[in-house]
Design a protein that fits this description.
The protein is built from eleven helices and 18 strands. It is α/β, with parallel strands linked by helices.
């Protein structure tokens, strides 16, 4: 089974809407098509126009009225160029772009007719810049944290709306951090003529969590102690948080929101697909201690009606169901579902189908409280072990190579049994011949399967084995007594030396194969 990932293609088309929401732009006045040279005209006519080859040429593009913004900065936002026919839509886009930079209070294009065409002049009125941004009154919160939340800094355009927006951001951030009574006032920066921005911070008392409660939960299925382990919001011990270094215990909105998500996921995993969690934060009279209460509406707990399989050809339904723990009539349980997926993968892995993909799907029914489970199975191709080469970090003498090979429970020609591969990995880890301490540069041997990278590598794997008939026999699996004979559809998984100081299983396909199965077993190990 090969994994091909085609990068999605996307196309972007940029349109220039004119005034009124339709395509078009700012048309030059009719005087440009006639009149005397040197005549200054303001574009007062607006409407949908299209590029006309008879439009006058732009002789020059000029900027007037700028003092604080450099000419290069302004020209970088202008797309109209000299030597091209005048395009009213592009002129309008330039005006919108200059306005959008929030550096100018007003932008007005004017046209001057000269010999050979027109001179386009953008007359701008600049916004004043913030000479300073100050924060006063903050004691517990650092100034640099406030500056980060405000998003404005000295040198930015003096925009009263931006200053007011920054004030709101700071106030909301303080409240989310536990200062529920925080008030932020912009004493400077919101009036015309202000040279800078000044924020007066009143933090108020910081609220810590005094209690965490759960209301509406089933004490047998979801006791308070279990739910408390799922949430990040914690109360201090004996309400003396300063006794513990680093303890905060603030009533933070972000944590409460994350707790709602965690509790919802917990109930979903137990089959309460309609469970709802509503948080409530209540403060004492002094606004110093908060009680965080999670009101839980569990709803109906869903049961499994039927368990079905799609795509299985190598395993019977009875074989697949035998080790399953989530069966018809049981309450839905995500933990059991995940365990059953692993059990099905294990069944296929024992038979050499190392890349079998199991996708469980929960289907809701018209009858409330019931779901069907459908396991979609892509079995893939069966794998056999091919050549085995070993590479160990550092020197690689013959004795060390044989030491590794003797601890492997797989041989060329064997069906790639996932159990034997894992046993081999555990045997290598427990051998004591490898340095496994990361502080000494060691790393335990690890077996990993991967797909080859790129089409060239896929093609290099699709080669015919030198001796395709040289497979050793294997005893029937006592599980079902069925042994599949070697087939031309089998994929040969080689253990080959790789340049990344590891040994890996890499596939080689049969001649003419179009979908080679790829796998790798990597064991980064340092010999003693």
């Amino acid at each position: 089974m090969a994994l091909y990932c085609a990068a999605p293609c996307a196309a972007w088309a940029q349109f220039s809407p004119g005034m009124g929401g339709g395509p078009g732009g700012m048309a030059p006045p009719p005087q440009l098509m006639g009149g005397k040279s040197g005549e200054h005209v303001h574009p007062d006519l607006v409407g949908p126009v299209y590029v006309d080859p008879t439009m006058p040429m732009v002789v020059d593009v000029r900027i007037e009225g700028h003092a604080k913004n450099s000419l290069d900065q302004i020209r970088a936002m202008v797309r109209t160029r000299s030597g091209r026919p005048l395009d009213p839509r592009m002129v309008e886009e330039d005006v919108r772009r200059l306005h959008g930079s929030k550096r100018f209070l007003d932008v007005r294009p004017t046209y001057t007719k000269v010999a050979g065409g027109v001179v386009l002049t953008y007359q701008v009125i600049e916004r004043p810049k913030l000479a300073y941004v100050k924060y006063a009154g903050n004691r517990k919160v650092k100034t640099r944290s406030l500056a980060k939340q405000s998003g404005i800094k000295p040198g930015d355009s003096a925009d009263p709306y931006a200053v007011e927006d920054a004030r709101g951001k700071i106030e909301q951030w303080l409240r989310d951090k536990g200062h529920s009574r925080a008030v932020v006032t912009a004493t400077e920066g919101t009036k015309p003529g202000d040279q800078g921005a000044v924020f007066m911070i009143h933090e108020g008392p910081i609220q810590r969590v005094g209690k965490v409660r759960f209301v509406g939960n089933d004490p047998k299925l979801a006791p308070d102690g279990r739910l408390q382990q799922l949430v990040q919001t914690k109360k201090p011990f004996l309400r003396i948080p300063y006794l513990f270094a680093g303890f905060k215990g603030f009533a933070e909105k972000d944590k409460v929101d994350a707790d709602v998500d965690a509790l919802t996921a917990y109930y979903r995993a137990l089959g309460y697909f309609q469970a709802k969690i509503a948080p409530e934060v209540m403060y004492d009279d002094d606004h110093e201690w908060a009680t965080v209460q999670f009101v839980i509406s569990e709803g109906v707990r869903y049961k499994v009606r039927n368990v079905n399989f799609i795509g299985n050809t190598k395993r019977t339904v009875e074989q697949l169901r035998e080790p399953m723990t989530l069966v018809s009539g049981d309450y839905f349980n995500q933990t059991k579902l995940s365990a059953d997926v692993t059990a099905i993968e294990e069944q296929y892995g024992r038979k050499g189908y190392l890349f079998a993909a199991i996708q469980p799907e929960t289907r809701f029914l018209e009858q409330p409280g019931e779901v069907d489970l459908v396991y979609k199975i892509e079995e893939g191709a069966r794998c056999r072990i091919g050549a085995i080469n070993v590479h160990i970090q550092g020197d690689d003498p013959h004795t060390r190579r044989m030491t590794v090979l003797n601890r492997l429970d797989v041989r060329p020609g064997d069906i790639a049994d996932i159990r034997k591969i894992r046993d081999s990995e555990r045997r290598l880890k427990a051998s004591g011949i490898f340095m496994v301490d990361p502080t000494q540069g060691g790393e335990p041997p690890k077996i990993v399967f991967r797909a080859p990278d790129g089409d060239e590598e896929l093609e290099s794997y699709a080669e015919k084995p030198k001796d395709p008939g040289n497979f050793r026999g294997q005893s029937p699996d006592p599980e079902d007594g069925i042994v599949e004979p070697p087939s031309d559809n089998d994929w040969i998984v080689d253990l080959v030396e790789r340049p990344d100081n590891s040994f890996q299983y890499v596939p080689r396909g049969r001649a003419g194969a179009l979908r080679p199965v790829a796998g790798a077993v990597a064991a980064n190990a340092t010999g003693r």
